[in-house]
Structures are given as C-alpha cells and as structure tokens.
Amino acid sequence: MPCQLFTASISVKSPRTVVYAGGKKKALEMADHSPPDTTRGHGTQRGGKSGKVADFRYKRPSRPEAKQGDRRNAPRRDGGFVSRPTSKLHDQTGQLPRKQAYAALDLGTNNCRLLIARPSGENFTVIDAFSRVVRLGEGLAASGKLSDEAMERTLAALHVCAEKLRRRNVRLARSVATEACRRASNGPAFIRRVKRETGIMLDIISAQEEARLAVLGCHVLLEEGNGPAIIFDIGGGSTELVLVQPGEKVPRILDWLSVPWGVVSLTDTVDGSDETHDLRLDRYMNMRRTVGRSFAEFAERIRDYTRSTEPIRLLGTSGTVTTLASLHLELPQYDRRAVDGLIVPSIAMRDISNRLSRMSGPDRKRLPCIGDDRANLVIAGCAILESILDIWPAEQLGVADRGIREGILRSLIAADVEGDRSRATVQRMREQDV
C-alpha cells in the first residue's frame, strides 16, 4: 500500500526556546503535584516520587524540510535536546557545572530504554542512549507471569544498559519498571534477579507515578493556549491519561486514569484473525469497545472540560503516535527530529488508524517505520488512540518522542541541584558562625 495515502496537512513548531516565568519555589512545588485521587489509578501503588522538577529550557534541534500545512494554531513552545558540548557557565551556586552524568532507565512491557545526559546550563545534553524491543510482557495476559524467554531477552538488554552505566561517569541514576512487572506474579522476583545479575536496581513504580513522570517529560510540547489538555502515554501494558490545566511552569494535574490496556496487553487479550478484511475489522472494533468501556467513567468525569470555550488540546507520547506521525509525514525511516513536537490534525490520525486496521499483516510490515516489530502491535495502538479521540475530541494532536525517561532526568538533576544549594547554605552558615 503506497505510503502517500497517509498524507494530510501539518503544523510544525516554531523555532523558539521555551522561556518560563515566575518564582522558582512555586514552580518546584507545582512540579511535585501528584494526581489527586490515588484510588482512581490502576495498579499496585509501589514506588515513591522521583523528586522535584527544574525549569529547564529545551532548544530546538535542526529539522529536515517539513511539509507545509495550516499553521494558525502552531504552538510557540518548542523542545529538543541540546547537541552542543557542555557550557562553562557557572550555575546558581557559583560553581562550574559538573561533568558527571545522570541516567534514566525505563523498562516497559515492550521496550527497554536508557538515556544518559549531562547538565548543560539550564539544559541537558544527551550523551548516550539505548533502546531495544524486549517484549517482557509477552504472554503475560494469559499466564499472569513473565515467561522465561521474555526475562532472558530483557536481561540481555539490561546487561547492555549496565555496561553503558559503568562506562559513563554517572552521578545519579533511576531505573523504573512499569505495568508488566506490576501485574506479573513473579515481577518482584525478576527485579531481584536483575539486581543480582546486572547490578541495576529497578523500582516498580505505580501507575500514578508513571503518569506523573510522563507529564514531566513532555509537557513543554503542549500547544500554547488557556484551555484544558489531555496528555496520554500508550505503553505496552497500560495507557495513562492525565487531564491538566497549564500553569506557570508545570501543568496542574486535575484528574488522571490508567487502564491495563497497552499495545501488548490489548493484542494478547482480544482474540481475532488477520485472514480477511472483515475479520480484521471485527477484531479492531472489539478492541475499540474493550478500551471504550475502560474509559467510560473517566470520560464522564471530564465531559464538562470538553465544552471549554477555549480550544482543548491533546498531546501523546508513545510509539503509536510517533509511528503514525512518521506515516503521516511519509518518512522513509524514523526521524526523531521531524516527529518530536509535530502537530497533526486528529482526523488525519484517525484516517491512518482506519487504514492500518484494514490492512493485512504482511502489508503493514512493508510500510516504512513499522516493520516486523510493530506490524501486529500497531493495531492495538490505533484502537487506543481512536478511543482517546472519542472522549477528548481535540482538533489537533501533538506528538512527543519523550516521556518517562526525560521526566526522570529532570527530576534527578533538579533534586541534585536543590541538594547542592542546601549544602552550600549550611556551609555558609557554619563559616559565619566561625
């Protein structure tokens, strides 16, 4: 199927640095705000907060020439990782910035991802990264356990991560595991095995913490505006939706939901066949109904917000939205610089989802940016995305190739800076006493 069938108009974010205003202390307090009702999220409540969030500025990366489209509602915020060397500017404590690195590892149901970065003024510079499809949650829906094969694949990836962590001068690191380890009866035992064999200490975080970190990692890509927004993360084993009201530096969380449907868990749970057009469509509609039922109560709670006089906004961070955005741009291969921060008409994403749901597996595999790894799972992602658009009918969808790892990094660096300031204050007081 020719990729040009996925074409629609787009808006690309303007090349401006995000500039925040307001007091530092207040912003940090807002950044630590958690979803208000811990009983509404799905999953065992494990893991604490990762720390406060600093008001980092992200500079726009260079991008290839993009297709032209409607720019009327293009956001004025932008984001990207700084690719230049660490600057020699002094930090707010009067000291030179450290050369040490900070690391964030996110072990999901489908992927293992590592990001290592150094502070660079008010930015951070990515110095190393790793991503591998490990399918940790494969078969979990049926057995309730992590399989031996899935654990071996994941351990192989974690050994690579451990070696990268050893080679870099990492000052602080946080490694988290999400839905697969939350749900699996042998999840805690696997975490202990990972520590024993790789030295990596994984923290099984709650769905609430997962949602919070995703917001911290990508909220700077929200379109400018005063209306409410939904930030969502379609994972391998769960999907988090967070209703936010944009504030000074970090959005205020109004409500949130986590459901146990991600691209892996939904694919494994909803039976069906890929043999004929009708059978494919029937399975897709069953997926849509399954997810829709899980969203029903949350949809009722947020209904009044959808009637806002201001345009409602939507921002997604996941492999699903970045893959569909790549198809929309007709990219021959995935390019983060072209996708991260993109604004796409929601109707275009629905159109791509409907077309993919009717294609056979072999046809999907031949599409650029999908391939073997995503050919089967992307259908569940499309069903979840369309269900989100059903309850939050934003005209445009923001796309973020960032999330939990970036949220962890910002938290770690900010907490370390705050600790340095506290230590510097104590030292000055001691010197004054002397």
Report strand %.
15-25%
**What is the terminal separation in angstroms?**
77 Å
Query: Helix tally?
Result: 15
User: What Rg, in angstroms, do the CA atoms define?
Assistant: 21 Å
CATH top level assignment of the largest domain: Alpha Beta
As for the CATH topology of the largest domain, it is Nucleotidyltransferase, domain 5
What does this structure look like?
- The protein is built from 15 helices and eleven strands.
- It is an alpha/beta fold and 434 residues long.
- Helix 8 runs parallel beside helix 14 (377-391), helix 9 crosses helix 14 (377-391) and helix 11 runs antiparallel to helix 14 (377-391).
- It starts with 23 loop residues before the first helix and ends with a helix.
Secondary-structure blueprint:
Blueprint: H1 24-31, E1 101-107, E2 111-120, E3 123-133, H2 140-143, H3 148-167, E4 170-177, H4 179-183, H5 187-198, E5 202-204, H6 207-218, E6 229-234, E7 239-245, E8 252-259, H7 263-269, H8 277-301, E9 313-317, H9 319-329, H10 336-339, E10 343-345, H11 346-358, H12 361-365, H13 371-375, H14 377-391, E11 396-400, H15 404-433
Helix pairs in contact: 3-5, 6-15, 7-14, 8-14, 9-11, 9-14, 11-14
